[in-house]
């Protein structure tokens, strides 16, 4: 490049003639000759002279432009190494430097600059959407890094440098950005809704919007919630006590039973505020949640079931007295109808093991407790904390329930009797106090006879009754409740110990054990199943019940046989309070006790306040999610986007279908079965049609039985739960409506359902950086297409491969194909087991490749998205280029893919997730997938042996 000239005084001086010199004809300026002629010019000379000046000026301008363009071109060629190779391709100038990424440690990288690889004859897209997208991509890049060294840093390093993790989160990434933006859209909708009540002749839309606004307003008004206090919970507790019996009694049973010894002595005093949940416990909790999801959405490898350790013939015959059986049955039905789990748990699910997986059948699960997984019940400090939380809840309820007020009256009567008998002078005062209480409570009180226990409740011919008739002692309530809490927690721990481990409980092979309803009734003698079912009014009485873990039935029966009624009552009340605590005001004691437990279990710093807006938006989803979904779709989605999304999915399915016969490890029989399954896949994009999210009348009918009040948030939560439970039970024995979804339209997620053979993509995820209809095809396929291909591939991974084209739990691969698949799947598992994150001390924590295997295999579906995009382009015009981006379409495809995995993660969160999450860390989801993909190597010219193009022996390929 030419060096700039030094400045001179002569150059800065005005170009004027020397006034002291004598001009000569040879040195006279041409302009002066024209404009100061020695003789008058003719008209023709003047015209010709003007044209000459104009041509001179134009020639000067073009020469200047040409020289400037030539200089820039030479500069770019020198910068990018575009010499005489004639290719204009990607040529790297290697300048070694070191870059450190927060999440993944220090790596040696190179300092290239991407060269222009786009074709000059492509049209440039200058629409606002393309300009914004181009700017976003440019800002997300770190072009100082060689894409063949570290493609994740190249594609997302700029994004990472310009973003940070919010204080209340452990990570922040592209998914969070989309979710936050979706929330802003919903808040905008909520703010635009009128606060006035709709008139009687208002439209369905107006009524729906009023419900939407009322739900949000009822939740956001925390001052009103705090003023309402505990009363909504107390009303429910009083009802369960009326059904089953009291928990606040004088003493424990004196008979020999499970709870003779003080269980709290085992863990009391072991918790202090410096305690943090051990990593292995966090792992167990996350595994439980992931396995629960995986049963419906695939992604986890299920092993064949092990032999039964116990058959149903081993169960002993136990029959409680009929009165106790009736009370337990009524209490469980009342709790379950309100979404409160206890003792056993019934679910309505598709009959995957039957002939038609769409028929909804009755499943019986074990109970779950107030702690995340059964392993938590073996951790003494957590049991100590949990016991204190349960004690705090029971104390608050006992001191403020109407049952407590009745006991206060009884105590006054007792004191009054003693005062009268002893001739004490304070008898008159006691009598006046008693009348004051009676006047205040007379309308709701049955005063106070019969005494607890004398009406048969809790009594009987065994130790289930209370030896003192249930009369409360003078012992302080908090001390009494502390003892009861220890026994409730002990009982709950025994229930958890009796249950199956999650890897068996949610394994569809292990858990599918259908028995006749009559047989199950015999195995659960404390529960009258016909009476229980009648509470939910199902349209079809189930012939069979699928028991997920048969040995649990005997265990829970034995536990109930040994447990006094007041402990069972305390257990029911605790489950009720923990389920609905989050619907109370933040300053209500029950809510505070629940939050105290949650904060420790989630590792949240003490005193951290919740983001009430986020809390209330989540409740909006829970209560009126489809109304919110309709408004979101109207603001952020279109019928054209839906049609285009469906087209992308179908093209990927088609590409996969055509590739199947050519998969080297799959024999022809399995390939044909796989093609049959691919043809049966049902893609769903945008929003459900049951209820019809596009039809306000459909939504009005869907929520017609839900009475929403702006000043009754707890009632809104309770009413919604009752409605959903009722709706679920009405589906028992009937085929599932294929237009229904498991997600709301605004959800930022996607899923594949093995029993249903569906891949589902809500409108919430079809947002930038995943999708925009205005984008060029290579970017739509690279981002959203990768998500679609991921979910499709789940249908053929080590979980989805166990369900046939009708969603039935069947083996449809040949043994040889299964063997060959496992070998290649293990290649992927070993590859990902070499990947890692860093903890806070800088130590490597490795990915568990077996845990992430299903998701890693699904990520490899990117190859099908690439093929589908290329096929679509071969049949249409060339795509438009983005302004300012000198990348080929192929390169932009892979940039679009990597950008969706942009994420910052705190070390503690990274370690926790790498131990529990079946998905690999985002860094490896991007780079691990691309290392195995030859199309990527070619697009960026990555040489064999480079970090992003490892030796073939270190690469893995399935699909």
UniProtKB/TrEMBL annotation:
Pfam families: Peptidase_M13, Peptidase_M13_N
Required cofactor(s): Zn(2+)
Region (Disordered): 1-32, 445-479
Biological-process GO terms, alphabetical: protein processing
Comp. bias (Basic and acidic residues): 458-479
Ranges of residues in domain Peptidase M13 C-terminal: 749-956
Superkingdom classification of source: Eukaryota
Coiled-coil segments on the chain, per record: 406-433
InterPro entries (alphabetical): MetalloPept_cat_dom_sf, Peptidase_M13, Peptidase_M13_C, Peptidase_M13_dom_2, Peptidase_M13_N
Species this chain originates from: Kwoniella europaea PYCC6329
Protein name: Endothelin-converting enzyme
Family: Belongs to the peptidase M13 family.
Low complexity bias (residue ranges): 14-31
Residues of the Peptidase M13 N-terminal domain: 147-242, 322-423, 478-688
tRNA-binding as UniProt keyword: no
GO molecular function, one term: metalloendopeptidase activity
Annotated transmembrane regions: 47-69
